[in-house]
Amino acid sequence: MNTTSDDLAPAVRSILDAAAERPGGDERVSVDARSLSDAFADAERDGRVPVIAEVKPTSPTTDGSRDDDPVELAEAMVAGGAAALSVLTEPEHFGGSVETLRRVRAAVDVPVLRKDFLVREDQLDAVEADVVLLIARFVGDDLPDLVAAARDRGFQPLVEVHSREELAAALAAGADLVGVNNRDLGKLDVDLATFESLAPEVPDRVTLIAESGISTPAEARRMRAAGADALLIGSAIMDAEGTDAAGTGGDVSANTRRFTSAESEGDV
């Protein structure tokens, strides 16, 4: 299952090469994490779709960027009902930083996911977060050790998968948070049927998150109907050019609310 340069899109290969060179933290961290499952349960009780809204200034798969203060964006997402936040810390391709994550986590009271391309244990020590992303395709046989290392530090590891093989590896590693990425990192194609095909194979004990390609409330409902406990949504919330039915455009609070209220209000 180890990744080779032949099976990744060039943009993703560049990201992974940069990740391999990025240093880790100087000291081992110990995190008192905010519970992601509790945050999802709270959202459900409030009648909200559990959404992890992503603070993503830019991306190789989208056009343009946002120059807003990430803390203001994060606060607006929480005001829009986001159950949790995802903050990019990858600097070269996504414009993220560990300092941005520190600032966001200090400003909000919801769980914060560190979204990055981690390939070594010492990279877990770069910054405190509540949840840390581990991409099965990128870490290969090291996945069980990285899951254990993350938990030892207090992190809640979210293991991202795209295939049945990767899902089997995640479950064998003891993952209880699994994200199915609808984007194929080999081709960068997005297909929501990816989640629909894998979801039935995920045990009930696992919290299941649908990632990538969710651009409308109707698609949010589709993922929920397929078994998603929560949704990770980035571009559809961050996109400054996007407009909702009320014409609010780049208002990330309103954009977040479109998805968190998708099941109670329909397409708003």
Structure description:
This protein has about 270 residues and is of the alpha/beta class. The protein has a single domain, classed as TIM Barrel (Alpha-Beta Barrel), CATH 3.20.20.70. About 40% of the residues lie in helices and about 15% in strands. It has an eight-stranded parallel β-barrel, surrounded by seven helices. The protein is globular and about 45 Å long. The termini are far apart. Belongs to the TrpC family. Pfam families: IGPS.
Short descriptors:
268 residues, alpha/beta, TIM Barrel, eight-stranded parallel barrel, 8 strands, Indole-3-glycerol phosphate synthase, Aldolase_TIM, Indole-3-glycerol_P_synth
Task: Outline the fold blueprint.
Layout: H1 10-21, H2 36-45, E1 51-55, H3 70-79, E2 84-88, H4 91-94, H5 98-107, E3 112-115, E4 131-135, H6 136-139, H7 143-152, E5 156-161, H8 164-172, E6 177-181, H9 193-198, E7 207-211, H10 217-225, E8 230-233, H11 235-238, H12 252-260, H13 262-265
Parallel strand pairs: 1-2, 1-8, 2-3, 3-4, 4-5, 5-6, 6-7, 7-8
